[in-house]
Amino acid sequence: SNAVIEGDEATLDAVTATTRLSNSSQIMDKTVVITGTQESVDKAGRASELAYQIAKKAKELKDPAVDRIAEELEERVKFATTGANRKSIEQYVKTANQLAFVYTIGGNASSALVNLSQVPLFVYPYLGAEHGFINTNRALGNATRIVMNSGNSIDQLFDFNAAEGTYKIRDSIDSYGVKRDLSPRQKEIAESILPLVKLAARRGQLTRTFLADALGLGEEGAKSRRKDKKGKITDTLSLDNLTSLSAVMFNQAERFNRQVTLLASYQLALRQEVDPRGKIKDFSEVAQAANKIEGATERAAEKALRQTQETNGGAVLETGPRYSQQGIGRIAFMYKTYGLRMYSTMLKSTKELLDKSLPPEERYIAFKQLAGVHMSALFFAGVQGLPLYGAIEMIANAFLGDDEEDFDSIVRRQFREPTYKGALNYFTGIDVATRVRLTGLLIQENRFNRDASLEESFFHYAGGPAFGTVDRLYRGFQDLGMVGGRDTIEVERAIENFLPASVANAYKAFGRVRREGYKTRRGDPIYDDVTSGDLAVLLFGFPPVEYTNQMEKNNILNNIDRTISKRKTSLTTQYYRAYRHNDLSGMSEALDKIVKWNNKYVKYPELIITPKTIERSLKRHIKTSQNIGTHNGVYVQNKGLIQEFASSFDDNYTFFD
Question: What is the pTM of this model?
Answer without folding.
Answer: 0.79
